[in-house]
Each structure stands twice: as structure tokens, then as C-alpha cells.
Write a structure and sequence with these properties.
It is built from 7 helices and 7 strands. By secondary structure, it is of the alpha+beta class. A 7-stranded mixed beta sheet has the order 1-2-3-4-5-7-6. Helix 1 packs antiparallel against helix 2. The relative contact order is 0.10.
């Protein structure tokens, strides 16, 4: 069946639904249901539509994985992922208690209920944000999971009205390809005061700073 673009002009996407994941849209619907604003039948219809759309994309997509908000059920997988890349010198180690306390800041990439990758969005007092603890299972690298996680966190930052997101990385090519621009750590005083001044590699840092301007 050939579908012309103008056949969809009668469908209006509400601003509050733009850039939301299926999971977030369903959570909005659940909230409306619990507030008595929609019926149980309406909620079931929304769930059915979401499942149907998801199945279509899964059938025709090359990568059948999803990116979502991390939960406490993901903690052990997050601990293992962060520890692996810390052992490779790609990020800083983090205690399990720290990950649990900051679980809301993490996003995970999942396929068949298995965590394939993760990262978190740390927000400074000034409103500047940093993507930290980015890591993807070495078994599935270079299949788009890292990009998908970063884009998920950038959408989250935009919803929070954050203007700038930065990263310190040893993989400059990756961040350059997805829209980040080269900068210098001296332009990130929040990071310097919090972490860099106390880092044992302060005088021989090999990480490169990149920044993403969300309002450009």
C-alpha cells in the first residue's frame, strides 16, 4: 500500500509528546488514567498501539535494541559495565552504592532484557551537564548502541532546558561524528573544580573535551 505524506496532515502531534519514548508516552497515559482523565479502555488502546508500532520497527529495523531509563533491576549489569571500562582506562570506577543513589541519571541500552550499554547524565549546579560512564558491551560495539544512548541523554537534557552537555573522552572520533564540538577543559570550570583538581592524572590528562550546544 502506497501512503502519501499529505494523507497524514490531519494528524497533529502534541508538543508534549514530541521526543518522548514509547515508555514515556505510556507513563503519561497511565498518569491520566490514575487521575480519572481517561478510561481503562483508552489506556488499553494506547498500549495496543504502542506495541503494534514497536513490533513494526522491530521487524524492519537492523538493530532490535531499545534505550530506556535505568531501574534498580539494572544495577548489577551497570556495575559490571562500568567496572569493565574502568579496567580498560576508559572511564572512572564507581561504587555500587553510588550507582544506586544516581540510578535516575542512567540510561541503558537493552536487547532481549540484556543490558548492552549504559551512560549517565550528571547535572552541575550551573546547569551544565556531563555525559559520564558511557560504555557498550565489547561483543556488540560499533552497531549504533553508543550513539543511541547519547542521543537519549541529549533529549533528556533538552527537556530539562539544559543548554550545554560536555564529555571528556579518549574516543574523539565517535563524539565528533554525532555532533559534539572540540573544546578545552578550561572552559568547563565546574568539571575542573569537582573532579580534575583532585584527579591523579591532572598533570598528564589524555582525555579530550567535547561539547554539544543544545540551542544551536
Amino acid at each position: 500500500m502506497n501512503v502519501k505524506k499529505n494523507e497524514f496532515l490531519s494528524y497533529v502531534i502534541l508538543d508534549e509528546l514530541r521526543d518522548n519514548t514509547f515508555e514515556e508516552i505510556y507513563e503519561k497515559a497511565e498518569s491520566l488514567y490514575h487521575d480519572g482523565k481517561i478510561s481503562e479502555t483508552d489506556l488499553k488502546h494506547i498500549a495496543t498501539y504502542i506495541v503494534g508500532i514497536n513490533q513494526v520497527f522491530l521487524q524492519h529495523g537492523e538493530n532490535n535494541y531499545t534505550v530506556r531509563q535505568a531501574t534498580l533491576e539494572d544495577v548489577d549489569a551497570l556495575v559490571d559495565m562500568v567496572a569493565f571500562w574502568a579496567s580498560q582506562g576508559q572511564n572512572l570506577p564507581r561504587k555500587k552504592s553510588d550507582i544506586v543513589r544516581n540510578i535516575q541519571s542512567f540510561a541503558v541500552c537493552v536487547k532481549d532484557r540484556q543490558v548492552l550499554g549504559c551512560a549517565c547524565l550528571y547535572v552541575y549546579d550551573s546547569g551544565l551537564a556531563e555525559i559520564r560512564s558511557l560504555g557498550v558491551s565489547p561483543v556488540v560495539q560499533r552497531q549504533g548502541q553508543g550513539r543511541a544512548i547519547v542521543q537519549f541523554l541529549l533529549r533528556r537534557a533538552r527537556k530539562m532546558f539544559i543548554d550545554r552537555v560536555f564529555v571528556l573522552t579518549r574516543s574523539p572520533e565517535f563524539f565528533g561524528k554525532i555532533g559534539f564540538k572540540l573544546t578545552v577543559k578550561e572552559k568547563l570550570p565546574e568539571k575542573i573544580l569537582k573532579d580534575c583538581d583532585n584527579c591523579p592524572k591532572k598533570d598528564k590528562c589524555d582525555e579530550i573535551a567535547f561539547i554539544y550546544e543544545l540551542n544551536e
